[in-house]
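Convert to structure. Protein one:
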Amino acid sequence: MINIKTLIKNNYSELILFSIIFLFFMQMLSDLAERIYDYALLGLKPTLHILALLFLFSSIALLFFRKPISDITLFILGELIIVTRLIEPLLKGEGLLILAGISVSGFLIFFPAIFTRSKNKEQQTGITLGVSLAIAVALSVLFRTVNSTLDVSVYRWYQIIGWVLGILASLMLVGMLLRSEKPAQIKSKDEESPVKFGRILLLTLGLSSVFIIIWFTFISPTVISRWTEGNYIGIVIGVLVMLTLFIVGMILKPDLMNLIKSWMLWSWNGLFALSLTFTVMMHQIIPTYGLFFPDNPAAYPIVAFPTAWFYHIPLVMMILLSPIIYIDFILLSRELLKMKPKPAKIGGGFTLGAGLYILIMIFMQVLPNVWGYLRPISTGFRDLYWLAFLIPGLFITIPIILFKKDTMKFVKTARELKSKSIILTILGLIFLGTVVGALVTSPHPGTPDEEKTSLIIMTFNIREGVNNTGEKNYDGQLELIRSVNPDIIALQECDPARIGGGNSDVVRYFANKLNMYSYRGPKTVANTYGTAILSKYPITSVAAFFMFSTHQQIGTTQAQIRFNSTLSFNVFSNHPAARTPEAKVYQIEQILSRTVGLDNVLLMGDFNFRPYSESYNITVATLDDSWEQKWLSPAATRIDHIFLSPGLTVLDAVYIEKGQSDHPAYWVEIQL
């Protein structure tokens, strides 16, 4: 008869355990930041939900432990991470926020506690942690790619994937308990020769920087694609190839790392940090003014540079150099493991070097997007989005000065051939599943009907894919769009491909599910709220341009859509915002200047002005209000409009009040 305890004990794998724990941590950290942003910042007036950021300081609990953390305590913390992760997707509202916070809290105690252990396995444990982190990232890329950037393991009935992983991780935790050894009767290095807190803090900052870079950049490759307008499938494959090469190398030939000298490590890190920063900066540059938008209204509209091939040089370098972050993770972990610091010291290090540091980096990512709303703090962050990548790049480089020679020494691992084969097979399946998923889910627009006598065009402010109560609502909004079945769609507030939106890409999600052509502009690095155009008909040319702003950067998407060989439309998706009447006038004049000389203009969006206002009157002096043309009077309380070139005939015009957002959806049918 099979002995379950023996079976679990013999098959316990730290690699499996940490791969799943790291994956769950990144998922919950992403959810925590997204929920806080949606509840506390999306309304642009901070609420008490922002206090959920205090979960990041949970490592402070380690200050109350005098001895190394026991196996049973680690088991309880591990189960807390797992159980809260499995329950969290089933909840809504504050419950989801709290469960995500508890899961993150559990990790921020569990992970630093690993370094207090007195077992002398720094060599193998360091490699295990680094490879586990890389596998976790590969799984994240897979789960997001197969569901058009929404993590499939927390989506509908596919949550069974998360439950399978959670059960597997729980079994590994049981195996950890069953294989636990009595603590070695030796003094810790901290007791023999007290380790300086500054050393622990610097190493912790390095570890946290690895997590931050992965979270900001690699767990969802659509983020990189939206920074750069790079080929999404190419970026997915590039990220995955480098992950695969790192994992295979560490499993089969880790001793090859002995060829890397300290100066090579410095150079590799430095080049990666620069390429990461320049990948962002290159795409922030605007004509004439460089990285910083001018405050002079006369300078606008500013048309963004078209993306030339050489803009992608830093991107390619960043992806090719990316394995260094996992190598750093191995070396940083080894150095901390050798120290075996007391819980109080590692707790203090993670409270500052993880909790406080991650909090600061969250704000450095978010504040450039809302620089005019949280004055005076936010104002100084305008146009500094790139800084949120330079800083962690520096902090994975600086701790190299702390590495000792034995930390840099790699020996060939003693894994059995069978174990290696299983890992490589799983890795191959992840790679294949991700590539197939990217290809299958990409939009494949059908042949458009050129015999149609009318077109349905639609504008929809989707509030970053959430509803009026702050709940993620991609599918609700998608069903509303499908019910209208528009030929052309203009979207506003569609910029969630950053941590405030859970690194999900609502434009890609809609385009994939609707099988439509799409253009989202300006790039996310410009820190606008995002506008996009989707179409059943080919998009033949595109542009993104900026208007003057007093409190947030304003960007508009422009595209030419070809209906047939003789008929094209010039489509604009627009979302201006201003706090003064003068600024509102500047903005609409700058937008209208882009329509001069164009035929068949469709100017759509959330204009933030109502009929009979000065901005509205300026607009209708040039273009027709579609609602007024159909119903003979303006929609007096509306700010979502569709303006048309004179001569286009409106057959129908409908506002959908329950727009699955905080705005109604508006569509019109025009005669061809």
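Protein two, convert as well:
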Amino acid sequence: MHTNRLAREKSPYLLQHAHNPVDWCAWNDEAFAKARTEDKPIFLSIGYSTCHWCHVMERESFEDEKVGAFLREHFVSIKVDREERPDVDKIYMTFVQSTTGSGGWPLNVFLTPELKPFFGGTYFPPDARHGRPSFLQLLEQIAGLWRERKLEIAASADELHARLELVTARDAKENLPLTPQTLRHATEMFKDAYDPANGGFGGAPKFPQPGIPLLVLRAAKRFGDDAAIKMVLHTCDRMNAGGIHDQLGGGFARYAVDAEWLVPHFEKMLYDNAQLVQLYLDAHLISQPEISNLKPQIYGGVARDILDYVLRDMTHPDGGFYSAEDADSEGHEGKYYCWTKDELSKLLTVEEYNVAATYFGITAEGNFVDHSHPTPLTGQNILSVVNPNVPAADQPLLAAAKTKMLAVLATRIRPHLDDKVLASWNGLMLGAFARASVVLNDEKYRVAAEKNVAFIREKLWVKSATDILSAGPDRPQDNVGTLFHRWRDGERDNVQLLEGYAFLLDGVIQLYEATLAPSHLDFAIELAEVLLAKFYDAANGGFWQSLAGTNDLILRVKDDYDGAEPSGNSVATRALLKLAGITGREDFKHAAEMTLQLFAHRLQSQPASLAFMLNALDFWLDEPRRIVIAGKSESVEFQNLLHAAHSVYQPNKIVLGNLGAVEPFAKTLTSKNDATAFVCTGNACQPPTHEATILLQQLSQ
């Protein structure tokens, strides 16, 4: 068996390739020096451990002895986990997208020893197809070109690098005004893309992209657009019923390959599920009868379903959240999740089977074939809710069927679990648990959030002597720290990324709003100060994705795309605006405003690319309503007021206490009882109240 350098790494994705015949290196100085010394081009392959097509290319090509031998002789081969190094991935994905018109994973790029790309693509097949060469033929062509026309390749790489610098450059254009019309224009574009039959904003393949429906709900609230609300709720309904939602185990897959949300790409990602919790919590609030005329729905139950799945299957015993679960099991995509008619008819009683088959739409031919495998399984049924109206008398039969099916799932070989803990994605899920704890009034979610932030502070947050010494006279030395990005198997990495700081900051702010514990506010302020010190571009606005002086990057870029994950710039903007409202800190607000201005042209011309930043813009457009709660935090009255403050759909409110580092006016508001709530805008407040019902009435006005 072959063993290469990846055997010493911690990334589950890199470890999956540790026994390939390819002489893989990790992304480090050792690999770069090897390329320079041996004067070889670099073959860079980027993916992640739950990526189905990454598995396919490994099986077809990277496990092939001939391919391995050719790569060893002619290239320095480097593997990168895109989830650990999104900054590396961003640069080379931008290159491939700009030169080929498309991108995805696995991402395969050829570089000079100076790390400049000159050719790239995504999946390359093992044999020639449709006029395209096989992967080995491509390697032979590039090796020949390097041998015979190296200077031309180097010159071309320099030219492509210059073009890449232009593509990634981000300077503020003219001083464009940002107004509610920007939101209205974006929302109308999203509504035009709405699928009235199946929900969602766009066609197949369908990604949830929660930033878009979250924005549409905000705009509907701002402009009184009931039709937009119904679009989002219909989307939530169809996703909930579809195969993209694991109907037995909970949680959502990454996307559906069709327009109906039926056939998923089965991997489950932490970042998707965190954002979907926020969407379903918003849907839960906006569908309440005291806020709208819509019939109350089960959206809060869907949020619980996701969170309970994460607690059961995606949580480290000490509180960190794991990254993902794979699409494949035993080499077949979706095998763990699918059922045949024959299997279910033998497992269930006749009565149970009839109810379950009607509910889930079970057929002999099935609704899914894994065509990516050489010997695809047949007759496979992805579970989706085809006939939701189960008579009351039959509901115990359906429950019994689900219990038996879950017991069978427990005996199947589960998909691979990517058990690394990322600061960024943990921040997203931290915020989801924190907010759910107070919206749904469930203590176990608050406990999970508190445990998670303690885990991150212990494993990934370091107050280093070097940082303290270099703090400078204008920043408090005790508020300087370092947030590393990845922890796994007892070790953290040495990488710092904007999304780590920004996403965790956003999550900690939500935890503060859910508890009003001053210690959480203190930590949020620490994170925000370090975020500004290390990533903010004070001259032009916006945040760099990586640290200055990072020597393994050919470019320093500002991430400007909200895709499946929101960008660090978008999350940082909203978090800083909210923290400015809580603390009164003008430096936080100014940095957020400069960032909005930097991206103003893109917000107006390409709103779909920055949907999450449009959520931040919506927050910025008006003075936020502040709910200040004073009193004894351990009292029932205090907790009732806190729950009430979060029980009305008002996305641009902030909730704060009167203790700790809050803004000065909040400190003047005190309680003579166990708890008092003040609803304020600026320095004007409604009459204080001790009653949760009165607070709900004030917020609903």
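Residues 467-479 have pLDDT under 50 and may be disordered. The CA atoms of residues 631 and 672 lie 8 Å apart.
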